[in-house]
Amino acid sequence: CRHPRRRVGLAQQRRVAQPPHGAVLVLWLRRKLVAALLRPPSAFPHMPTLRLAKTLWGVPEADDPDLWDELFARIKAEGFDGVEAITLTWRTDRDRFVSLLKKHGLQLICQIHTSGGDLDPATGYVYCSSNKLHDHLASFVKLTAEAKALGAVLINSHSGHDSWGSGDKAVAFFKHALLVEAQLGVPVVHETHRQRLLYSPYTAAELLSKPELAALKVNADLSHWCCVCEKVFDAADPRDDWWPATLRLVAEHCEFVHARVGHAEGPQVSDPSAPEFAAEVSAHASWWRTIWAAQAARHPSDDAAVWAEPEHGPPPYLQTLPFSQQPVADLWEVNARMAQRVRTEHAAAMREAAASTAAPPAPPPSGPDFIAGGDAGRWGMSSYMGPKDGYVFREQGPRGAGYYREGTAAARAGSDAPAGPEPAKPAPSVGRDGSLLRAAMDENPDVADKLASMMGGAVPPVAPPAGEDEAAAAASAEKLRAVDEEGVAVGARLAAQQREGAVEFACASASAPGGDLSLLERCVGKMNLGSASGGGGAAEVAKMVFSAGAEQLSLVTHVPESKRRGVDAAAWTRAVLAAIGGKVMCSAPQPAPLGGGSIVLAAVSADGGEHEPDADMALGLAAAARFLEEDTPA
Fold first, then answer.
1. CB count, 10 Å around CB of 623?
2. Cα–Cα dist 32/153, whole Å
3. Cβ 600 vs Cβ 533: under 8 Å
4. Which pLDDT value is given to residue 393?
């Protein structure tokens, strides 16, 4: 819109308690008609409604509270249902921000950046300041609570650090994030964003496949993955045969779509309406339709709603001219056109979803009568390349070895395909150790002969893998064994002291976890596990257990149901953290997986040497004992 003030004026006129008339009536009817046309067609029963959010990223008026009233009126007039904002915007004037959103009927999506969100006077906005688990957990707890207080309907989190991969740190973060989300009562999505845990499709697929993260929700901004992988994924490309399964996995977890179009060399094309980007736009739109179809299957209700947001951003995402730094496109207009494209694509996805539920089974695929098989004489491999829908394999058909379409005379003569699938072979590891080549040579000795002829002599033997993976796995298993053994030993000691009537509340330390909070939680679980199941049997002892490492002091507080009247786990933990001081993270109480009652997880950061975890542990043990002396019944 090139005349925002004029449109705001009309929006304000519509709020006056009188019927529209004259030119205003014409404009009012026109807008009602446009809004009706832009809604998903009512012919799709039991399909969720699309809600569009407007990003405030790159909108200059979002930085000035005096312009918010006019800005929000314009956003509402253009058909958006809400806005997405970061801390830098809402902290400028929280009360006015929330009040004006309500005035214009806009909902709020809060975007948070773990270990970020603050303004540094010297460097500007802090996006990500740490790669430490405790810093990100503490930040997540703080920022999500702030977002809930603002009345956010959805929280979009840039979560964790990409250096964690898909290992224990990443899983621990997401498990705690799910607990925080459940306690907040506000849905939280985790964005597929560079620098963060879901930065890559490969890492994301590994994490989203884990059963313990089945409830994790994601915000699919797939433009980042094009940039990370330097490729716009194409299911028809053999190199991308993994992509359909990964996209389906993302779709199963996706509750928010950032509709930005990326390309092989960056996360954002300059203008998606330009013809040179037609292929990239088409690919992204097809991915979004897959996601929306999955959402429709998960939320089969007229009352359900799904969020999407055109999120093309300002420079440096938006390209600029050299020297002048002039943006090559009007960002507001780009996102306005993308909003229309999103509405169109969502309606198409709903049409496809509705049709698929009512359509008869699809007929066998059509295609050529014959597809040639592999060149066995040249490559020394079977012509059979696995089953193909709608085709029958013939080794000696009238046109040679290959696939004949069902219904043809050649196909009716029968199949020469193997009777059944061969037992699956373990996939060779990928790397520089030659395992792929070795596997191919083991599977078919002819390959070695052909390679030898190509190389002018015998193929040198491939060295076996160096065993780094095996060594790492062995070290990890040894670490877990040490954690479990210490948990059983400490638990058995506490259980024995309880049987002797010497202890009901205890403080203890564990060295094997090395300050790792997730390992300490596992250790306390072993303490609580019944002795008949190989545990320590200390589930009925209220306990606070400490573990010091190089980066942090971790503590786990467990209070069984039978002791909750004697001590509150959260109050006990807060008292200890207050005595230690420093940069701390503390979870809300949660049901204990073993032993019943409640459990609280906490950590105190070494903070770059400002705190010494071993000294903090001594302080914490003393404070924990002092709390028990002062606050538990005799």
1. 19
2. 26
3. no
4. 75
